Amino acid sequence: MSLEDRLYPLLSLYERLPDGFKRAAGWTYRQLPTRWRLGRRYGEFRQLAAESESWDLDAIREYQVRQLRQVLIQAGNYSPWYQRRFGEARFDPARIHSPDDLGCCPFLTKSDLQRHLAEITSSAVPERQRLYITTGGSTGVPVGFYLQKGVSRPKEQAFLEAQWSRGGYFPGARLAVIRGHVTTDRAQGRIATYDATRDWLMLSSYHLTESRLGEYLEAIENFRPDILHAYPSAALQLAEFLERAGQTWRLPLRCVLAGSERLNLPQKRLLERVFGTRVYRWYGHSERAVLAAEGRSSDLFYFWPTYGFVEFGEADSDGFREVIGTSFHNLAMPLIRYRTGDYVRLADPKTHGDLEFPWPAVAEIAGREQEFLVSRTGRRISLTAFNMHDAIFDGLYAVQFAQAEPGRAEFRYVPSPAFHTSRLDAIRSGVTRKLGDDFVVDFREVRETERTARGKHRWLVSTLTHASGTPTGAPDAHAT
Questions:
Q1: pLDDT at residue number 11
Q2: Distances from the Cα of 344 to the Cαs of 149, 293, 320, 419, in angstroms?
Q3: Sheet holding 440-445, edge to edge
Q4: 316, 332 in Cβ contact below 8 A?
Q5: What tens digit of pLDDT does each residue of 379-393 get?
Q6: Hey, which of 22, 93, 106, 174 has its CA 20 to 30 A from 258?
Q7: What is the dihedral of CA 189, 191, 197, 199, to 10 degrees?
């Protein structure tokens, strides 16, 4: 198990330390060998990511069949839920000789994870080797699942670094980060803290008001990062502020890393013009079944064939297909034919030209809209930043915000039969901490939440508008 996994339960304690102690502890931690910090398997996955970029189709297929057989047999032997579902479908994992043989294997849904977590979890991996995570992701449907300690986190870091390197990332780079970090729950509180464990400047995603954007720019300039790592919505706010003020970005950057929210090509070009560097996008989710990222010279998203196995559902009337993933390597809870609820438009060689890699490629990802709650003082809070990776929403089938006026929102929730109202105080406290002191939140139990025309759950229903006049909770046009 990696040192990072061992120390993960102490993260909240570390965050409460005085700044001087955190800097000293963080500097000491950074001096430790990478294999200690991230675990021995980090190097294995880093090598796998690097080497597999040059594999031919035969090598890819051989690797995928081997991994599919491993996770399917593991699930069939040690997961009661998979055992039952495989039996009902008359599906034999041992007969997998090609990815095409998955056709009769049943799908896994978010509802299945909510209702059958214990039965889906593998009994072959001891509890001490599991890491429990929850996410609302892009859909607002709270889902809990297990990662495998010593495997899932080093694997994720290895593949992220491998794909970021296409855009300009390098080990030891100094990053300025605007991705959901909470510096304070006060509307006028500080906007930045220093993460000494990584030599990163962590900036608040919750204080990006017109009056304070200048502070953000000053903090970033003083830190002099190599890379800006931000939610697209946050990067766009900075860029638009600079253009309105007639200012130019003065720091040389290796790249801007922009993930977790949808960023279309016109927006990407705006950011590249303002920041004077490449803006690099990728797609993934906390469940870690599949991962995709732009190429070295292409705006297309390529799904890593050695990270997980990706399939796509039938095309809808707009040409969008659901992403369906089967996870590799995480034997604590394999996700098999997992319906993510995210939709993509496949790349067409006739339109987009030759592909950089012989991997599944998509031209557009329709998940993760840039959705905001707006505070009384004008702060815009991305609901991607609001995503909580703890158990606060356990027992809720779905959550949704509705907003009609700045500074006030309704929190709608669909409880499971096991949910008890005594949990509401803890949920209220967590939501209030995330939103800050210039927000009033009303809680309302509902039988179901509003959905998009495609039937996808909406995190936010809002009648407020961006400067462009588009409702903040409305899906963008499917433009690339």
A1: 77
A2: 30, 13, 5, 34
A3: 440-445, 408-415, 396-405, 460-462
A4: no
A5: 878 776 665 555 678
A6: 22
A7: -150
